[in-house]
User: Fold this.
Amino acid sequence: MTALPRQAEALVVGAGPTGLALAITLKRHGIHCVVVDKLDAPLPWSRALGLHARTLEILQALDVLKPVLERSLVQRTVTVRNERGPLVELDLGGLDGPVPGVLSCPQSEVEACLTDRLRALGGSVVRATELLDFHQHDEGVHVRLRDGGDEHELDCRMLVGCDGAHSRVREQLGLRFDGVRQSDHFLLADLDIDWDLDPYSSHGFLLARGALIALPMPRGWRLVINQRDTELSAGEEPTLAPFRARLERALGEAPALGEPWWLSRFSIHRRLASHYRRNMVFIAGDACHVQSPLGAQGMNTGIADAFNLGWKMALYIQGHGDGSLLDTYERERRPVARSMLHTVDLLSRTSFARNGLLRRPRDWMLKVLGRQAWFRRRLVRRFSQLDVNYRTVASSLNLPPGLLKGPGPCPGDRVPDVKLVHPDGSYSQQLQTLLRDPRHHLLVWLPDDSAHRARVSAYALADRIWLDYGERVAMTVITPAPLEPELADLREFNVSVLIDRDGVFRRGFGDQNSLWMMRPDGHLAWRGRLREADRLLQDMERFFRRV
Assistant:
């Protein structure tokens, strides 16, 4: 059993996907963090299932994607029907993520993979340990914990509550958690089903007397149905009877159902915390936002919260930046959650609607718009979270996008993933895989016709980055063809070189800018021309200054 220390740089409360992803991010940056969880052991149930393209990029950066893939099923399509037949089919395979589709992986398996990775980095989870209270002071946060039957005191620089919808941290901070509950309740069953439905597709049946959602799992299926509160007495244990009745309405007859290994009743809430931070105490994941499970956004949004917050905490703890850097966590992530909550709430309310005045226009719109390729692409991409951006949030290393003209991503955008090639052609590499190195990444574009002056500037920039910022910034030169012999010397400055053999980088990023600074979370911090390198260095000096 892991003993609790008396001091840590960071304390993470809660060992779900959000807390584990945050702890891994901090450990990769060299931060001594402690993870505690009040449960004696991880919950065995599948709970959340879907992992979208952006989350897969994050798991890839954390070196967790491979084991997660081994425990997953790849969903390729989503099909939606009503009583009269198909309404829309969505193709999940066209996204520029590391896997062509959405992964169906039970939350328990995701947590197991993240826990293994945390252990490999020298971390662990201290279980059966409950947060009692905390208070903040000039040096950080003093925390009281209950470890078994004993009380334990711990001092840390920062505390993060990843402790779920009933967050003790959020409660002690006095933060509001406003929202509403949907009028229906819901039944969930994980089980084997003997039927002919496509096992690599999610299936939605939007029926007059209630909806049925069927989600494929690595083992078996998950069924979800809605019921009015009056249809199930308080305290009554759920059974498979309402599932069989709903399946008969959807398919004409109910297929053979196996014994469920998880059968549960739940309600859907939409709630958002009023703030994500009070001084050196933060909240993330379900402690910040809860929503309908439709669209599989909750676990994905929580992991992205952690990936955004972790590198900022690390820089601050190590003496770089100031409180304005920490402010950007709430300023960037809370609008994402607010938008996601409204989208998922609309999806949930319309999907489970029984009123014909709502169902008829809904079905008509799905059928008409579902024929449009642009609509299908836009819907899939929105739920993939690949288009999440922080354009409206300016920081010391994030220029307002209105000042920048030309094609390509703007500061705050996720950096597009493109395939590049090693100079000797031995292997190809996706741009987002650079994030396996948890530093900032400076991308330098050198076209074929680069003037001598531009090449000299690239050398000078490489020298300065290597000498002054090597621990914080990695530099990668991207060219359309293998470098000439004299440019190969860039490697002396620990510069990586990648080739844009198929022109995908040039098309996606354009020719008007040559410098692209990617943050450790894969979003763009800065862009400009090579002749503006001095301005970049000035901004970097301000951003990475020690305080």
User: Anything to note?
Assistant: The CA atoms of residues 516 and 527 lie 5 Å apart. The longest helix spans residues 323-351. The longest strand covers residues 177-191.
